[in-house]
Amino acid sequence: MNKICVFCGNPPENKNKEHVLPQWLLKMTGNPNRVVKFGNNYLEGKEIIFSWKKFTVPSCTKCNDKYAKLEGEVRPIIEKLCDKTEINSNEAIKLLDWLDKVRIGLWINYYYLEKNKAQINPRMFIENRMGRKDRFMQVQFLESNKKSDGLNAFGVETLSFQFNPSCFGLRINNILILNGSNDFIISENCGFPFPKKIESVENGMLSLKDWEYNRTVSKKISGLKLLKGVLTVLQPIHTEMNYETNYFNDSYLIQNCIDREKRIGTLFRFADDGVIPIYDLNAELYFESVKGKDIKIIGELIAKVYEGQNAFLSKVISGKEETFEKTIELNKKHIEFYKEYHKNFA
Ligand SMILES: [Zn+2]
Hints:
single chain; alpha+beta; three-stranded mixed beta sheet; 30% helix; 23% strand; binds zinc ion
């Protein structure tokens, strides 16, 4: 396997190592030198064990330096969430960028770690993928009597994630973040235009057909029904989709974009029964209260990662249908496993 830079996809210039999960995060969640069980592969009954510190991918020195600033900006945002302090929309957008970075980084990391088990040819890298497609995140507070430190990534070990790194979960101490990004996954529920038919053609290109544009919002995310979270935000982004359109001259999109040229929508959030656009990006995003029947065991929250991967993979019609069906079946086993999982993670 040829070494490629996780940021730009070229052979690494002045070779460096990028910590996909940064040092500050390792320190925040325990001893950075600890050896951890990572990406438990329940299906094959094997555990992937190594030191967090060695969890690195190749990168250019220049590329690595370029993204160091983002790390510095995200750290206080994560700290706020761990303290159950509200963040504003600009911070949420920054966090969404970082989650794109970590998700793609973990995907490339597993590509090396498991020796390209899905036989893919990576065309996505942090630089050409961060902030380019529809995305969402949901924050959950994990209620526990004792203070629990720890860091876990969920969903990154699956075959489905290797085919399409669309959805993963990150537990940081007492919070769990569910993050997803894929073509048009939340356009429909933010009232943005979307194709009902997405077909994978050659070289990773997509054919987009049967467009709809309803200008109405809803909570349904592309076949994935989310649980209630303390904060759920969505951002429709069509930057990567070079389709011909006049849509972005329409009044609804004029009102609800932060950059129409790049086809970047504003931030939307779940609020009580609905979905609302946010126009003041400096205003704090209040937390929704999760109580009574909305409180779920941790396993049920984690199961949503695997449900998300299945929902998003099912959306794309592809020549690899048989392989995808098998992948979806495998994920169903993860879902069953987690739905019964009551224990805490460490
Ligand atoms: Zn590079």
